[in-house]
Amino acid sequence: MTDHDHDVGGSPRLPAARRLLLGVGVTVLVVLGVAVLIGRAAGFSRVRDEVANADSSWFAVCFLAEVVAYVSYSFVFRDAMRRRGGPDLGMGLSLHLTLASLGAMIAAASAGGLAVTYWSFRRAGHATEEAIVRVLGLNTLVYLVFGLVAWIAALLTTIGVLGDAPLGLTLPWLVVIPVCIVAAWFTTEPRRVERLTASDRGLALRVVGYGIGGTAWVRGLLRSPDAGLPVACAAGYWAGDIACLGAALHSVGQPLPLAELALAFATGYAAMVLPLPLGGAGGVEAAMTYALTAVGVPLAPALVAVAVYRLFGFWIPTLPAFAALAFLPRAGRSLERAATATSGAHA
User: Fold this and answer.
1) Across the chain, where does the E strand assignment appear?
2) pTM for this one?
């Protein structure tokens, strides 16, 4: 690794504060617009009654569930950073960077979150290609667990265990997830990875190669003897988020069997995976609300439950996320110190 590999500048280029505030304002308007449209379909009086009768004691469960989710994701981030001789950042710095990536995602869509994560790996001493591979590998691992959770939930509801759901909701998960896993396994066979990730190809093929490299990184991680911790923490991230939605449904008196809950969550959350601006605000609310109605939750309580879920899963974390973004240069200095300490220990 050369000295140039450590020189990545101050911090990722993100929108100015004025543009960020404007974007948040637009996001609020979009979410309110979606809520009004769904509320009109559900009946405003029914939505008002659901809000008035909501059991706020479940809100504490929502908050704690999201704490579990963010801490679990920080563990996955920390593990991806320290593997194969990388620095161990500690939980405080890992959580800081996790929140900063959320803030960047809100500010600049999914690309912003990826930019902060990539910058973090570079400042921690990883070379350019290694940083890209680890960023993609980190996300691949997290969404692999997400896909497996969705597939298991779809299978259980299809056979009527822990819930029930229409075939139109379950079939896409039952088909797409195995196809993706088989394709990933095929392309990451060791004899293919070297050929598919060669750096002397065109830009488009290099981009594909980075994706394959990230997937191969996950395959290697899963074969390691200590793979259990990052996989369990990735599962903990999704479990916390699903538990938050479950508590929100309890607050409006509409609890769901576990498999139905996980399936509705996954179907609605899929909107966030798309490269939508400002964390997919609006699209996630609509998709998750109608996913809940597909498993039998009436429209009005579904809308209120999703609003509660997004309050604790998105809006409340926005405040510490923006604070983490503001202190990103300080985190960069901490990353450099961690990288230097690791290099010294390996010297």
Assistant:
1) none
2) 0.88
